[in-house]
Amino acid sequence: MKKALKVIAIIFGVLVIGFVIVGVLIIKKLPSPWEVKQAISPKKAQSPEFVQQTPAKPGEKSPSPNQAKEEAPKNHEEKIDDSKARTLQVLKDDFMNEQKPLSTVCNYLNNAEKSQFLRKDDSGSANEFMKSLESNQKDPVVESAASLFRYIFRVDGMRELFDMIEKADAEHDQGLFKKAEFYTKLGIAGQNIRSNKANIDRILMKSYNLYTLSRVVGRHPELARDPATLSFCEQIEKNINLNLDFNPDEQAAELQKFLDYAKVDPKEVDFDPNYRSNVDFNFKNNSLQLTHTWIEKLFAKDIEKAKREINKEATTAAPDSTSNY
User: Does residue 1 lie in a domain region?
Assistant: First the structure.
């Protein structure tokens, strides 16, 4: 069970950023909704008693939470808790919030130059991805990828699945029937995602063009104030938000014209005019995975780290073949 929960925590962290979609489907020893909640939630959300303060002496005032934070730097566990809390907040306030448009890249083009995901030191990460989504000054590169997550987490069944996890408690949500209900909802949500493959492919192709445009502006910041650049960006973004008809060949040609206008070599921004999305949905390592997307490159380090952790767990748990029985 400990192994199963650790795998869930790793994969969930990479996805809601970095890139496994519905969650881990453990075939043996299925964790309950409550156990899944423990794996993905900060401890404060699991138990209000997690944070305990030393009682103040008579005549002294108890330190405020802000004072406590200032007095001692956060340890590794607290940082992980902060990351989980940030991820869940983005899930609820952004990805699942249907009042927010799928794409808002054009509003933040002036921030492209500062993008963590365009730096030579390759400092972009899932954590930076979530920080950007939580901030008021968002990274347009992050925003170009976020449209996919917003679409997926608004697919029928995802809200019900998330609500069940969020409301789970230790006393009532670990029985066989509750597990059956939970995994039925998980299966329905996963199937709904798979049935939306055509829409997902279209969003990936459209957002790839916004990603390329953001890279161009990141290298040439003056374009963030250029009317023609903003108009082209808004044209692509409108197509995403209103789910308009889309011809990938025509859009690739339009983007090439924009690069010519901006005097940017396609290789300079790693633009592939022949890119066409054709995502795969695979059951691998007991999980439903969405692969062959351009977004994966943003989280390459996180994905590799997760794979190493999973392989390490599998190696540790594997029986010794030299043992005598």
Answer: yes
d(CA 74, CA 55): 20
Task: Write out the DSSP string of 253-321.
Answer: HHHHHHHHHHT--GGGGT--TT-----EEEEETTEEEEES-GGGGGGHHHHHHHHHHHHHHHHHHS--T
249 is written with which tokens? 């060949």
State the total domains in the chain: 1
133's CB contacts (< 8 A; 6+ apart) are 90, 94, 142, 146
How does pLDDT run across 114-167, given as a tens digit for each residue? 998 887 655 568 888 999 999 999 999 999 999 999 999 999 999 998 898 888
What residues make up the domain containing 287?
A: 1-39+157-194+279-318
Nearest CA-CA partner of 24 in 320, 239, 309: 309
Q: Is residue 9 part of a domain?
A: yes
| Separation of alpha carbons 316 and 232, rounded Å | 52
Q: Nearest Cα to 137, choosing from 167, 120, 116? A: 116
By DSSP bridging, strand 280-284 and strand 287-291 are: antiparallel
* Statement: residue 236 has pLDDT above 90: yes
Q: Is residue 304 part of a domain?
A: yes
CA-to-CA dists, residue 103 to 83, 263, 324, angstroms: 23, 26, 59
The 3-state DSSP class for residue 18 equals strand
**162 occurs within a structural domain:** yes
Q: Which residue, chain included where needed, has tokens 């921004």?
A: 269
Nearest to 21 by CA among 292, 316, 319: 292
Which pTM does this prediction carry? 0.75
DSSP-derived 3-state class of residue 4:
helix
State the distance between the two ends of the chain, measured CA to CA, in whole angstroms: 25
Residue 181 pLDDT more than 70?
Answer: yes
CA distance 208 to 198: 15
